[in-house]
Design brief:
about 90 residues, mainly alpha, 5 helices
């Protein structure tokens, strides 16, 4: 029995394939988050050092910095916000 398992959820054996995803310590993003955030925060500079066009590198770096928040949030909110921004820009341009 897993600690913190709701009483209404079905019991699974430890060898069940679904049990690997039900344990929070096995699929956590937290250990890698600071390193990924550091790379994303410096993405524009990294791209410029590998000889990417400066304008493209600056825009990609800005996009990567806005994506850092998705490391601690659900994936749904950033995708929804970016889709809304794209739709608004599409209506404004077309």
């Amino acid at each position: 029995m897993f600690v913190g398992r709701p009483a209404s959820s079905p019991r699974r054996s430890p060898t069940s394939p679904a049990s690997a995803f039900s344990a929070p310590w096995r699929c956590s993003r937290w250990p890698a988050s600071p390193y990924v955030a550091f790379v994303w925060a410096n993405d524009g500079e990294i791209r410029q050092r590998v000889d990417q066009d400066a304008d493209i590198a600056a825009e990609a770096g800005a996009n990567a910095r806005w994506t850092i928040l998705s490391l601690v949030q659900s994936v749904v909110v950033p995708v929804m916000a970016s889709s809304a921004a794209t739709a608004i820009c599409h209506v404004a341009v077309c």
